[in-house]
Amino acid sequence: FKARPWQLKEVDSVCGYCGNGCTVTLGVMDNKVQTIRFNDKTGVNDGNLCVRGRFGYSYVNSDERLKKPLVRKDGQLVEVSWQEAAEAVVEGFKKAKAEKGLGIISGARLTNEEFFLLKNLAKGFGTANLDHSGGECYKGLTEGFMETLGVSASLGTFPQVEQCDAILSIRSDFYETHPVFGMVVNQAVKRNDAHLTVLSDKKGKFTKLPHAKTLLAKPGTEVTVLNAMAQVLLAEGLAVTEGIEGVEALKTSLATCTPEKAEAITGVGAESIKAAARQLGAAKKAAILLAYGLPYTAQSKELAVAAANLALLTGVAGRSGSGLYLCGEKANSQGAVDLGILPQKGGLGVQEMLKQAAGENLSALYVVGEDPLTSYPNRSMVEAALSKVSFLVVQDLFLSPTAQQADVVLPAASFAEKDGTFTNAERRIQRVRPGIAPPGEAKTDFAIFEMLAARLGNQVSYTGPAAVFSDIVNNSPNYKGIEFSQIGPQGVVWGGEEFAPAHKRVVPVAAAQGLAAAYQLVTGSALYHSGTVSTRAQGPNAVVAEPYLELGREDAAALKVQEGDTLNVKGNGVELKLKAKIGTRLPKGVVFAPYHFASAGLNRLYQGETAVAVELSK
Ligand code: SF4
User: Fold this and answer.
1) What range(s) does the 4Fe-4S Mo/W bis-MGD-type domain occupy (predicted)?
2) Mean model confidence pLDDT for the chain
3) Which of 28, 29, 184, 222 shows the smallest number of beta carbons within 10 Å?
4) What is the pLDDT of residues 479-501, one digit of tens each?
5) Which range marks the domain in which residue 290 is found?
6) Which residue's alpha carbon is nearest to atom 6 within ligand 1?
7) 45 and 173, same domain (yes or no)
8) What is the pTM assigned to this prediction?
9) 19 CB-contact burial (10 Å; exposed 0-12 / middle 13-18 / buried 19+)
């Protein structure tokens, strides 16, 4: 890149990667994003960006971007006009409706306005089968949070977490999933001496912070640790019980879930469980953090209930400056939920759509901004679903492995080419602005949905995102009163900075047992998310370049494995070869592989469980 800074056109927008929602300034020249830098200290990131946001944009300028619509003719995908492609899509979906129906699977990186149009389009195509990638996990979390708190969104804002004196991070390492939020937690720990408890099946970057205490639970047993913490608060009279329904029933159900019993199941020491519970109970301001997205689907409802019980018993839910944080993985995961990109009444969720498609009970799939073959669990079911539907439409930036199977491919736009809003994980609605035009004939999802709606005979046509936003405000109680033109550099947080639970009800949840196996494979994020765009960007690739299997030193010694050796990994009837990476963050018997590398085929082996029993050999 040779341009001088003053030669660049600067455009303020929002990072397109994760639910942190960092504000960015795009530096643009020759219709290419040449730089991304932080946006002069405005926004929730306060001048910080992580490696993905700062250096992970080169995929936007990639020569491999799709530039023309493609339609399959005589077995080959060939370039066609938009008119021909749109006609094929509308006719194909009409036919599907008359047969076994259509399912729509969306990514969580579309703008709120695009989600609104997509939901209307689903209605136009007569399908209730609509969901987004994190939908399955979100469904479980929502059920859990609605039962306990009556709301299913973060209760506070990220900056409030910096002032907390106790933080409990459950299952996710925010330094990986939401790195700039990870820095906020870091500040709370380093500047304000906050006590950080990390409850996870593996150590992470959080573990290394001063005062951080990691409760290393056997895979799938985090719920039991949370239950035991609730039991300690109730047994020691430390729990807030006033105004909370269901306390007696919870007490009875937890009577036997003592820290000692939990230790036997989870491997976390009884004294550590007691200390963590007491610390959280004594904090003046505390935060409980939970991430959601594709890799967190298993036990999501149970975890939500157990976390909410704890939030209620410690007073975290509803106390000023404290909060429970529900962090969606992708840039507009919260928007997908707010705008109802979830199964409509009687409709199917993502996994059920794929299952029905694999069983030839669904005629068509419309996949928008997702690459299920690469990133969804249970790859053989995804393969069957894609090959069994009679009509597959994929709308994306690249000819992904999923797009290669499609009957019609529609070339879409990246975040840097879009106008509208994203809503981040703390409910902050922010403006996304286009720095460049989409390459070739590619179009924004907004323009594609409008084109398909018009062809369907839908007369409503919008002048732009502001007009759609007014309709969102009229249709969504949470967005009521917000004006598009008023969304300034700090965004607008719907529901206010402190969002109160609608009710307070603790609910019993069964203790979870771990898996009995010599080796358990867990998966999750390693810098990337699903990898559909990040693995095409040079920045993240320089840090994590290839798939691997991580194992602890003790297991490596027992297996006589050295760093870089190839290991056979066998489980769920599938055998993979992965390079060994030896580290110190995994307990004996637990191994880890990041879920985003399609080439590794991990999603053949991993089918959505918390952990898979595997055999390892050299
Ligand atoms: Fe982008 Fe998330 Fe990194 Fe912020 S933390 S720069 S939103 S990827």
Assistant:
1) 8-64
2) 91
3) 29
4) 999 999 999 989 999 998 888 89
5) 137-327
6) 53
7) no
8) 0.91
9) buried
